[in-house]
Specification:
single chain, about 250 residues, alpha/beta, Undecaprenyl pyrophosphate synthetase, 2 domains, 6-stranded parallel beta sheet, 8 helices
Length: about 250
Amino acid sequence: MKWKAALTLALKKTPRTATEFAALPKHVAIIMDGNGRWAKKHHLNVSKGHRQGTEALREIIRHTDDLGIRVLSLYAFSTENWNRSEEEVSALMQLMLDFFSSEIDELDAKNVRILILGDKGRLPEKQREVLKEAEKRTERNTGLRLNIAINYGGRAEIVKAAREIAVLVRNGALQADQITEETLSDHLYTRGQPDVDLLIRTSGEQRLSNFLLYQNAYAEFVFPEVLWPDFTVHEYDLALDAYAHRDRRYGGRK
């Protein structure tokens, strides 16, 4: 049975290529959960857990790009995360600056287009400027679409879309009976993008936590037990492989 152990070890070390999957999603969304528990497990400050999570994130973005997946959406900071301790929020704000400072050159060189999902208005000025600059710098890129949800809430996004549509109706640019699902989609942060095909939430928790509520309507869910800082490319490949073997019927029958 030694050959099986050797094969397992090889799979952990060698990322798969696109041709090794029966099918790949167009849009992957990830709830990066478990940084705090990872820090507690290793007797570290929670900010160390978030920083270690950023290390995992770099590899996942690179592998997503290598596989040719069109869209990757990441839940980085929710509207509810402001309720965490001042120390943790401050650490997350600094980590945001550090991430874009260290990664923007590579992301831009790889033709990645960055889009921030959420209300940037509540963020500190320095963070707002860094995010706006990342979007502007990469707005003409045509490769992987990297959505980063910051100060984001799925319900708030739908309310924002409803208000924009209501203004159109009030101004006579749209009739109420002309409103369709496509109308609503066109007023979401993700307008023009495919809906989520695969949602991954690490750490074993099994809930959406207000993330892309509309876009996840027919997503396949995978809930790995591993904490986010330990989420490797191999773990990612396992989730993608699970997706490839799902029977997606969208409410119908084959």
